[in-house]
């Protein structure tokens, strides 16, 4: 057994109800997908252990409620975040139109020291639906928005088919680690051999 330093990275996932925030996280952390829709109430988090640039990282990913009536916690817990993941459904235009609002609300509540440099990432989810034939938002439109918002990285994903999910969250971890100016590090006694991933969850409802 040995003691190793870990960096805790807090990530907030935002977007309209039904875009697939919970499904993306569940696919990423638990490698599971369910067709059934169960609205998130309040906020919940999952954690995943990663090795990034030879650093041990604990990614604490906060899932939030898209439905306004379930947003009981407001935006108070956005504070201290190291990255914000914005999710929309490529098949539903209004879920993209609200991205400006989610972006600005996040900055308002999180109040990072330099809002112009705070890392966001945009995910266009459900690209599997109807083989892309019911798409409402083109990749170009999404990319143009990202460029207009200080070059936010953009990924197209499918939580259902596990398409690009790992790559997207790996990128989240990298930019969160890179941005982190005041590291939350802690020591934990762990076996010398590091498991690929560990997970746990908690609820702040
Ligand atoms: N076809 C398809 N369906 C998806 C995908 N991701 C999520 N879904 C479905 O979309 C519905 C909503 O997914 P959720 O992950 O619960 O959405 P959410 O964004 O967490 O919604 P709230 O908790 O209300 O904010 C569920 O029925 C999922 O099965 C996807 O990539 N493809
Ligand atoms: Mg949810």
TrEMBL record:
Subcellular location: Endomembrane system
PROSITE patterns: RAB, RAS, RHO
Gene Ontology CC annotations of this record: endomembrane system; vacuolar membrane
Xref: Pfam families: Ras
Keywords linked to the UniProt accession: GTP-binding, Lipoprotein, Membrane, Nucleotide-binding, Prenylation, Protein transport, Transport
SUPFAM superfamilies in UniProt: P-loop containing nucleoside triphosphate hydrolases
Example of a GO MF term: GTPase activity
Keyword Transferase: no
Keyword Membrane carried by entry: yes
UniProt-listed SMART domains: RAB, RAN, RAS, RHO
Stored InterPro entries: P-loop_NTPase (IPR027417), Small_GTP-bd (IPR005225), Small_GTPase (IPR001806)
Topology of this chain in the membrane: Lipid-anchor
Entry's Gene Ontology BP terms: protein transport
Protein family (similarity comment): Belongs to the small GTPase superfamily. Rab family.
PANTHER family: RAB FAMILY, RAS-RELATED PROTEIN RABG3B
Name the UniProt record assigns to this protein: Ras-related protein Rab7
Organism expressing this protein natively: Zostera marina (Eelgrass)
Lineage: Eukaryota, Viridiplantae, Streptophyta, Embryophyta, Tracheophyta
